[in-house]
Write a structure and sequence with these properties.
The chain is an all-alpha fold. The protein contains 3 helices and no strands.
Amino acid sequence: MEETRHRFHEGLTELEQKTLDGFEQVIEQLDRALESVGSRDVELAATVVAEDDRINRRYREIHEDALSLLARQAPVAGDLRVVAALLDIAR
């Protein structure tokens, strides 16, 4: 049972890191979006729009990983709150 809990917490840590890494993508996109507006760069704006799919994929990965983690384990209330928070943050 203890190994199962350990694997759960490893998965939770990986999910947290994936969520934090997603912030980097969002920050990059925001910087590009602001730059494109400031410089009126239509090509850069188009790149920003095209790259939005990458962020959407990241969200779907986080969502699927969270659901998978919950399905494989029986997390306690504190762990459920963390997973719920990560899903909300990723959205």
